[in-house]
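Pilot study result, target chain (120 residues):
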Amino acid sequence: MAVKNRKTMRARRHLRIRKKISGTAVRPRFCVSITTNHIYCQFIDDVSGATLASTSSLDPKFKSENAKPNMAGAVLLGKLAAEAAKAANVTEVVFDRSGYNYHGRMKAIAETARENGLKF
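Predicted structure:
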């Protein structure tokens, strides 16, 4: 029997999710990844294998607000992600939570992006 820990269980959830969802040029995949120090958001067209737009907690706009990758920073990042999507002419997306629970920072990013014009 395989050892089950948080990392392997998240990896399994991520693979299970990715089997079901895929992004296109019309409706790209909004992929959010959270590490211990940073948060990354990408809009990915899986058909052509291209990233249409991206933002992260390393972005100069994020850093200029003196934000940290906590809940308040996640709200700001959701707003920045929605702005980046609008700049790339993206209005509808498929949300990819990368195996993380839809809770806390993940939920804050998604709800703020919805409030700023993205349709999931």
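One observation from the pilot: The radius of gyration is 14 Å. A full batch analysis is planned for the follow-on phase.
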